[in-house]
Amino acid sequence: MSKRTVHFKIYRYDPDKDEKPYMQDISVELEASDKKLLDAIVRLKTKDDTLSFRRSCREGVCGSDAMNINGKNGLACLTDVDSLPQPITLRPLPGLPVIRDLIVDMTQFFKQYHSIKPYLVNNDPPPERERLQSPDDREELNGLYECILCACCSTSCPSFWWNPDKFVGPAGLLAAYRFLADTRDQDTNARLDNLEDPYRLFRCHSIMNCVDVCPKGLNPTRAIGKIKDMMVRRAV
Amino acid sequence: MNVAKRTFDAVIVGAGGAGLRAALQLSEAGLKTAVLTKVFPTRSHTVAAQGGVAASLGNTTEDNWHWHMYDTVKGSDWLGDQDAIEFMVKKANEVVVELEHYGMPFDRTDNGKIYQRPFGGHSMNYGQAPVMRSCAAADRTGHAMLHALYQRNVRANTQFFVEWNALDLIRNSEGDVLGVTAIEMETGEVSIFHAKATIFATGGAGRIYYSSTNAFINTGDGLGMAARAGIPLEDMEFWQFHPTGVAGAGVLITEGVRGEGGILRNSSGERFMERYAPNLKDLASRDVVSRSMVTEINEGRGCGPDKDHVLLDITHLAPENIMKRLPGIREISIQFAGIDPIKAPIPVVPTCHYQMGGIPTNYKGQVIVPKDGNPNTPVVGFYAAGECACASVHGANRLGTNSLLDLLVFGKSAGESVVEDFQSGNLSLKPLPADAADLSLARIARLENQKNGTDVHEVRLAMQRTMQKHAGVFRFNELLTEGVARILEVAEQSLHTEIGDKSKVWNTARTEALELDNLIEVAKATMISAEARKESRGAHVRDDAPDTAENPNGRDDKNWLKHTLWYRDGNRLDYKPVNLKPLSDDVEPIALAKRTY
User: Fold this and answer.
1) What is the pLDDT at residue B223?
2) Residues B138-188: pLDDT tens digits?
3) ipTM for the complex?
4) B209 phi and psi angles, rounded to 5 deg
């Protein structure tokens, strides 16, 4: 890949100096080694160091650089810059308060994650060695435990936009099912009680934006469906 | 500037594996604890670890801690301290089983136990054959571990200060540590975290090199803070170059790929590791494999149009096994090399990965410095664990999977030491000196007011290129000498960095400038320590210290079986003995021998 110029339209807002947000038109010449969108905005930052965004691992496992890319949520580090129509429009994740530029306040997102008690509950005295779990039972956790908490899913979900304080959202519900599905966990009833509510679980209307945007290829809608099944089975 | 003061029993800086493991000890003991972290805990770099954590559980092949200890001492090229190594390998089963109890989703054997795979340098019966010691959750072990540790901390109600950058260590005139200063990203405000105990778990500084598997955040903040506060850094010449970074991108491909049967090949398709390590072959120690790869490339047997990499081949493995055991690697290869490893081999090249040296500690996680004739005197109130610390269990070369073990064992041990010292009344809240925040405020004011200065990006790039060229996989006397002069020039430029962003809110330009201050301390420590060590040992191999009868592999035990200590003040070097004596009578010292695989 040779040198080429890329054009951006980027949401900018610095509460320290801007009265209101605006869209900045800016271009940058990329080096041959700049392949991902993250490479491009890191390059852009060498030109304008006021552009603010989160980033860390640059390989899609830490979940820092989620943003809205040409209208769709994704990770900058896993998006090929040359695959994007230009100008590349970058906005912060929708539905959360913007702190500055592409940085959102994720308090509400993590509050919902914490609300599902995201930890294993097992009240038996711990054995000296590992608790046994069959490969098949362990297999049930695949597609659940890999979540990186990037918030692409929850911030693409209209139900979460409307009720971020009441609806747990796809990321939190995926985590809830991760513990419900774990044969080592003993808190099934309390976990279901905690979600038995018109909003917390049942605001999911299977719009499936979450599945569409998950950069790890996970399926929160399916996990939510399984929680609903468990509720029904418990009721009959 | 107004500086708020917050008071705690303990402050932990860093919320990766070591910080989170330490935090659990303190939270569960009821200490009022603040965990400062510059990223949300699950974004820490532990998340990127792939292949596994070492423990001699013996779930598939026979194993015991004696064999693990031997492998670790040999892997360290005898620079590791044998008391700390014995402590670590003996604790391995306990800390791994604890994680399983916390809910970590390890893969399983058919009988339901934790799945274990072979890994480089780990052997049965003192080097005879590969052993299955690496406890794994597919190839996402670090992710699974970090999330399990964070989740357990949620349960324990640990108090986090997320997106706070620690700036400087606070010491009084006796040298006791009283806490840190830190800046909140969202407001730009500086606070003092005043505490009876301070634990550093700030990770490594792999970003001193141009080509690195490390995350952007791995900027050696704890090392920079310690160095500026007069604490020496130990064995900083020893850096691990991981054999398999994706060529061009630097992203890590786990050694677990070779553990599952992957093979390294040169341009003629030859399995060249058979020539360099006839016994363990592709699963020899990382320093050995990286040097073999560079030798192949240097001698014209590299692959691709520029003959600048070799190939990691798993096309002979069953696709369902790749999907099950190495799904993340497949994703990474497709994303960053444009190659599906089921169909074609992955282009790889040795890439900077891990810092063996760090802040000197003992096996209890106490930071130790030379004082009054004792080279290992604890600094009151100061503890460190994980990659930022040097216990020293990795010596001159770390074995794969021993890093996750290190951060569990010593994170826990540092936490236990704080609880013990706290409960026995050995820790007290000492008065803050009047100038406690002055250094941090001066650093920020300088950035605010710097005119006609240097560019942060340019200076960082100059540092990274200097380190890459002058202190790489193979080291040369002449390049090291030039490297010292060059890195001191770059350090001078770093004193005058200028930023365009003057905002108080989420000013990442300022963060990067402050991080560069830390990186540059690590870079100086590395280059100066490396230039001075006139032997080859582990990851430090130089042209003027070749393999001879007297000095096997170029290792000179008569003159250089000792730890380096670099002091920032005047770039002074000091040395201290390696502890060749194990902690208990359960095991004899592992006697010095030539390292072959």
Assistant:
1) 98
2) 999 999 999 999 999 999 999 999 999 999 999 999 999 999 999 999 999
3) 0.98
4) -95, 155
Question: What's the count of helices (H) and strands (E) in chain B, helices before strands?
Answer: 16, 22
Distance CA B526, CA B356 (A): 11
pLDDT, average across residues B114-128:
96
Gap between the Cα atoms of B288 and B178, Å rounded: 42
Give the residue from A130, A134, A140, A187 with the most B CB atoms within 10 Å of its CB, the best one to mutate.
A130
Any CB–CB contact under 8 A between A131 and chain B?
yes
**CA–CA separation, A61 vs B144, rounded Å?**
11
CB burial class (10 A; 0-12, 13-18, 19+) of residue B30? exposed
Six token digits for residue B543: 């042209």
The residues pairing with A8 across neighbouring beta strands, listed in sequence order, are A26, A88
- Count other Cβ atoms within 10 Å, centred on residue A33: 10
- Give dist(CA B23, CA B586) in Å, integer: 31
Count the Cβ atoms, other than its own, within 10 Å of residue A29.
12
Contact B471, B527 (CB under 8 A): yes
pTM for the full predicted model: 0.98
Check A131 against B332: CB less than 8 A apart. Answer: no
List of chain B residues whose C-beta atoms are within 8 Å of the C-beta of residue A63? 42-43
Q: A113: which 2 tokens?
A: 């994650």
d(CA A207, CA A185): 30
Report the relative pairing of strands B263-265 and B562-567 from DSSP bridges. Answer: unpaired
Contacts of B262 (CB under 8 A, 6+ apart): B282, B312, B313, B314, B317
In this complex, do B503 and A134 lie within 8 Å of one another by their Cβ atoms? no
Residues 104-123 of A with CB under 8 A from B: 106, 110, 114, 117-120, 122
Tokens read off for A134: 């069959």
Crossing angle, helix B82-102 and helix B141-155, to 10 degrees?
70
In whole angstroms, give the CA distance from residue B25 to residue B19. Answer: 10
Contact criterion met (CB < 8 Å) for A58 and B509: no
Substitution target in A34, A56, A117 with the highest count of B β-carbons within 10 Å is A56
Q: What is the pLDDT of residues A103-115, one digit of tens each?
A: 999 999 999 999 9
Question: Which of B476, B460, B573 is closest to B519 using CA atoms?
Answer: B460
CB-defined contacts A:B, below 8 A:
149
Q: How far apart are CA B555 and CA B543, in angstroms?
A: 12
Q: If residue B118 lies in a helix (H) or strand (E), which one and from where to where?
A: strand B116-124
Write down the mean pLDDT value for chain A.
97
> What are the DSSP E strand ranges found in B295-445?
310-313, 346-355, 359-360, 366-371, 374-384, 389-390
Query: Phi/psi class of residue B246: alpha, beta or left (left: φ > 0; alpha: ψ in -120 to 50)?
Result: beta
- End-to-end, the C-alpha distance of chain B in Å comes to 59
Which residues have a Cβ under 8 Å from the Cβ of B349 and sit 6 or more positions away?
B211, B245, B247, B293, B297, B308, B309, B310
Question: Containing H/E element for B35?
Answer: strand B33-37
Buried b (16+ CB within 10 A) or exposed e, B419-456: bebbeeeebeebebeeebbebbbebbeebeeeeebbbb
Q: Which of A58, A61, A103 sits opposite B47 (nearest CB)?
A: A61
Tell me which DSSP letter residue B195 carries: E
Amino acid identity, position B73: V
pLDDT tens-digit profile of B387-404?
A: 999 999 999 999 999 999
CA neighbours closer than 13 Å in the CB half-sphere of residue B594: 9
B216/A56 CB distance under 8 A: yes
Token digits of residue A125: 């005295």
CA angle in degrees (0–180, nearest 5) for B38-B44-B46: 155
Chain B residues in contact with A100 (beta carbon < 8 A): 503, 505-506
